[in-house]
Amino acid sequence: MKKPSATDADYLLEKLVWLLGIHSPSGYTDPVVRAVCGELDELGLEYELTRRGAIRATLPGKRHAPGRAVVAHVDTLGAMVKELKDNGRLGLIPVGTWSARFAEGARVSIFTDDEIYRGQVMPLKASGHTYNEAVDTQPVSWENVEVRIDERCTTLRELIDLGVRVGDFVGFDAGVETFPNGYVTARHLDDKAGVAAILAAAKAIVESDAELPSDLYLLFTISEEVGSGASAVLHGDVAELIAVDNGAAAPGQASSEYGVTIAMADSTGPFDFHLTRHLIQLCKANHLQHARDIFRYYRCDAASAIEAGNDIRTALVAFGVDGSHGYERTNLDSLRSVADLLVAYATHEPLFATQEKLLGNLDSFPETRRTDVDGVRVLEGKPITQVTPPPPDGEELPIDRPKKKRKPSR
User: Fold this and answer.
1) Does position 160 have pLDDT exceeding 60, yes or no?
2) Which of 115, 158, 177, 224 is catalytic?
3) 190 conformational bin, left if phi > 0, alpha if psi -120 to 50, beta if neither
4) 57, 73, 155, 241: least surrounded by Cβ within 10 Å?
């Protein structure tokens, strides 16, 4: 029997749609950082910002250590202006890793030093009346798309006069649509949906006045899509880190747009053995639909945290997304399940409460089940013949010969 959800689904969906309405390609995240901080103020949570804008909020517990953290990223895919073209249009370079096939036709905002212009990403051969069947054979690449600005602009000079410059950020509209059956379609569900799930979990904890056994830090990073992620926003006493991000629901994958997915490994290697299984047990204890999956072409905030030298246990909790880094879709059921799991995790004792310090002894180290097989049986065989090394400089080495037995004297 499924346990009733502790998460306010209406709040979760409202915050998701709100976040999706804020452009935040990696490198241009200040507006969404301010928005998330405003929501943390509404929830009554204290927070700090790094120099570049990563957020660290605190849900206080009965003790400070060992600390735990959950992390999602507020930055999204996007683009930058690479070229001002003679025809008054803009060449692009992607921010983050994604295909130009999902950029074609998108409505965008171009952020210049002084203005924000609107426009649309068009293939170079955009008119069938002009190019006939050539519109179908044009290669898919960033070199084959351009931005058409919705201004009187058909020359390079007019582009310059508008104030458009190489390096201006381009934000892609989310195009969000919601349905009564729980489905949400939009760009940038990766990872605005993860941020919304964390906020919903925090709201449930605050409103229930739940007592946490140890501090829980809510981390919101600003550069996951370009690789740095949670590399500089952790407290030194954090022992466990759970990344919240999308799980690819696709053929050959076990992720689903319903329930929660526990990632066992991604392209950077396996997640922590103990922490992943702890989360699975929490799913079972709280009757949360869940699946396990492995992502071969994927990395998340946890990877950058480890690469930065943090000795912490990491795990990845995912909401199922169909068409990740493209035209994405998820279901509110999956997001609510993620939030419920985070609440269960936060209110449960730390996995290894005795591991408060970076260094300890074997008494605080977990014991893992050994293999169930007997020791390898050693088979006796012929002894290995020792080969005498060659003598140095042609000298003969003394050879031990077996001593002859003396005949007994009469």
Assistant:
1) yes
2) 224
3) beta
4) 155
